[in-house]
Every structure is written in C-alpha cells, then in structure tokens.
Amino acid sequence: MKEEMNILFVCKCLPWSCVDGINGQVWNMSHTMIEQGHQVTILCIGSEHDCENSYMKDGIVITEIPYFVGSYMDPIAMLAEEYFFNLAVKRWIRKNVEKFDVVNILGQRRDLSIDNLYPELHEKQQA
C-alpha cells in the first residue's frame, strides 16, 4: 500500500491564466498525483493587492499569493517581477514547509533552490 504524501508545486501561474508549457505540466502532474491518492497544493501568483487566497479546484488546493507586479517598471520589469515573486514564495514556504512531504519548484528559480530556501527541508528530504 502506497503512503499518501502532501505535495507542493510552485509555479508562477496556472494554465488558464497564462500560456506556458510548465503550467500545463504542473496541472497534469497534479491530477496524476490526486488520482494516486496524494494531496496536492499549487502555489502561484495572485493579485498584487489582495491577501493570500486558497481554494479547491478538481481536488487540488490552489494557493495564490500576492506579490509586486514588475510590469509597471519597464525596462527592468521581468527582473523585478521574478525577484518579488521569488521573495513571496520564500516567505510562504518558510511559514508552511512542515505541511509538505515534497516541494517541487518549477521554472528558472535559482534563488529558490532548496539549499537557499530552507536548508532544514533539504536535510529532511535527504533522510
């Protein structure tokens, strides 16, 4: 009998809010994990003004976190947006890490590596 795991996927947005192959893969993997009896949470962007928002869709917990939208700051928009998204994710994961058995961070998020983000989580996963 397989042990149920609580899995966290981190991606910037969901397939219906922006077009990107990674987002579709996260959604498909989440459904597969749910079918195998695991619990899945997807952590993604929300509104820049709202508070954290969690809701259920297709058995998947979707948690949207607020962050600073860099599109107001051309020409450094992309860098600012990535920086503030990564910062919001770090804060959220540090506060909630004990709830998850697996944390899967997708995309080019070098500063969200497990070693940089939460060394204790890295040690937990190596055990």
Topology:
Layout (H helix, E strand, L loop, with lengths): L5 E5 L10 H15 L3 E7 L7 E5 L2 E6 L11 H20 L5 E4 L8 H4 L1 H8 L1
Parallel strand pairs: 1-2, 1-5, 2-4
Antiparallel strand pairs: 3-4
Word description of this protein:
- With 127 residues, this protein is α/β, with parallel strands linked by helices.
- Helices cover 37% and strands 21% of the residues.
- It contains four helices and five strands; from the N terminus they run E-H-E-E-E-H-E-H-H.
- It has helices spanning 21-35, 77-96, 114-117, 119-126; strands at residues 6-10, 39-45, 53-57, 60-65, 102-105.
- It has a five-stranded mixed sheet with strand order 3-4-2-1-5.
- Helix 1 (21-35) links the parallel strand 1 and strand 2.
- The longest helix is centred in the C-terminal third of the chain and has 20 residues, at 77-96.
- The relative contact order is 0.17.
- The model has no long low-confidence stretch (mean pLDDT 78).
Shape: globular
Judged by helices, strands and strand pairing, the structural class is alpha/beta
Strand content: 15-25%
**Rg value:** 15 Å
The strand count comes to 5
SSE string, helix = H, strand = E?
Answer: EHEEEHEHH
Biggest sheet features:
5 strands, mixed
Please estimate the helix content.
25-40%
Strand order of the largest sheet: 3-4-2-1-5
Low-confidence stretches: none
**Mean pLDDT score, rounded?**
78
Please count the helical segments: 4
N-C termini distance: 21 Å
